[in-house]
Each structure stands twice: as structure tokens, then as C-alpha cells.
């Protein structure tokens, strides 16, 4: 068949683990009358076990490299995420502390311009809220003093219920 087609042919034998290659080799010297009849077919037998072994080694190496690259990428993304989210997490925690009433809390510096603007706004807001709360406490104390020292009986009602009564109301109702 190789003589007729003058093309290479491969035959694989899985039992022996070999590949047999038949190659048409034309006669390079055409100056003799028998030159057309002296063409040959070369038969080469290759063992596939070495190639198969090398393919498995390459597969293992590529899998190891892919897994290592994936692990390094995940680790890098995690570290980058922590680096980016850490200032925001700190700022949110400090805002929560202000919301719990710590109006004098000093907000940490982040070094990031946008977060610094937010932190400055929160600082200013916390100071203003702290001032308002302080004034409310003073005002409540003042009105409580007026309520308790008033000579007129005063009741604080909510619907049909008495929430508070000053001493004059207690002596009147008692």
C-alpha cells in the first residue's frame, strides 16, 4: 500500500506498546534504467511506553503548576481584599461606636483620600451630635429641676396613665 500511495503509514499496536511507521523512500539517483524499481519502504518501530510515561509526567507537572497558580492567586486576592477592606472595616466599627454614644471618639486616619473625607464628615457629625446631646441633657436637667421644685402640682400623663408626678402632686393626691 505504501508503494502505491507513496505516503507514510502508521500502525499502532496497543498490546506491545509500539507504533510501526512505514515510509516511502524514493531512489535519489535517476540516471539508471532501473531507478524506478529501486525505491524502498523503510519500516521504523517506536516504543510508546517512553512517550506515555513522559506524557503522564507532563500532565502531573502541568496539574501541579495549575494548582499552585490557583492557590497563589486565591492567596493574593485574599490579601488584597483584606488590605482594601481593612480601613473600611475600621471606619465602620468606629462609626458604630459613635452610634453607641461615644461622641468624643477619635476616628482613625486611613491615608486614603476618599475615606479621609468620610472620616472628617463623621468626626464633624459626631462632634455636632455630641454637642446637641450635651445640650439636651442640660436642658432635661433644668426642666427636671423645675418640675421637682415647682409649688404647683404637676402630672405627666400618657393616655390614662400617670407617668410621673412632682412632689407637690404627690402631697396633694396622697
Could you name the key traits of this structure?
single chain, 174 residues, alpha+beta, two-stranded antiparallel ribbon, 4 helices, 5 strands, 57% helix
Describe the structure.
- It is a single chain.
- The protein is built from four helices and five strands; from the N terminus they run αβββααββα.
- The protein has 174 residues and is of the alpha+beta class.
- It is rod-shaped, with a radius of gyration of 47 Å.
Architecture blueprint of SSEs:
Layout: H1 2-5, E1 9-13, E2 18-25, E3 40-47, H2 49-99, H3 113-149, E4 155-158, E5 161-165, H4 167-173
Antiparallel strand pairs: 1-2, 2-3, 4-5
Helix pairs in contact: 2-3
Short structural summary:
This protein has helices at 2-5, 49-99, 113-149, 167-173, and strands at residues 9-13, 18-25, 40-47, 155-158, 161-165.
Shape: rod-shaped
**Helix segment tally:** 4
Average predicted confidence as pLDDT: 85
Distance between the first and last residues' Cα: 127 Å
Class computed from helices, strands and strand pairing: alpha+beta
State the total count of DSSP E strands: 5
How large is the radius of gyration?
A: 47 Å
Low-confidence stretches: none
Largest sheet: 3 strands, antiparallel
Helix content: 55-70%
Name the strands of the widest sheet in spatial order: 1-2-3
Please state roughly what percent of the residues sit in beta strands, choosing from under 5%, 5-15%, 15-25%, 25-35%, 35-45% or over 45%.
15-25%
Q: Would you list the SSEs in sequence order as H and E?
A: HEEEHHEEH
Amino acid at each position: 500500500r505504501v508503494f502505491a500511495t507513496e505516503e507514510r503509514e502508521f500502525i499502532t499496536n496497543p498490546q506491545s506498546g509500539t507504533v510501526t511507521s512505514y515510509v516511502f523512500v524514493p531512489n535519489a539517483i535517476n540516471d539508471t534504467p532501473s531507478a524506478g524499481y529501486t525505491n524502498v519502504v523503510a519500516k521504523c518501530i517506536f516504543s510508546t511506553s517512553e512517550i506515555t510515561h513522559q506524557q503522564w509526567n507532563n500532565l502531573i507537572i502541568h496539574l501541579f503548576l495549575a494548582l499552585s497558580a490557583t492557590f497563589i492567586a486565591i492567596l493574593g486576592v485574599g490579601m488584597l481584599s483584606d488590605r482594601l477592606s481593612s480601613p473600611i472595616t475600621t471606619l465602620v466599627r468606629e462609626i458604630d461606636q459613635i452610634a453607641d454614644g461615644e461622641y468624643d471618639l477619635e476616628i482613625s486616619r486611613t491615608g486614603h483620600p476618599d475615606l479621609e473625607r468620610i472620616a472628617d464628615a463623621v468626626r464633624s457629625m459626631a462632634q455636632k451630635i455630641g454637642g446637641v446631646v450635651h445640650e439636651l441633657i442640660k436642658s432635661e436637667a433644668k426642666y427636671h429641676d423645675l418640675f421637682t421644685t415647682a409649688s404647683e402640682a404637676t402630672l405627666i400623663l400618657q393616655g390614662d396613665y400617670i407617668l410621673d408626678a412632682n412632689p407637690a402632686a404627690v402631697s396633694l393626691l396622697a
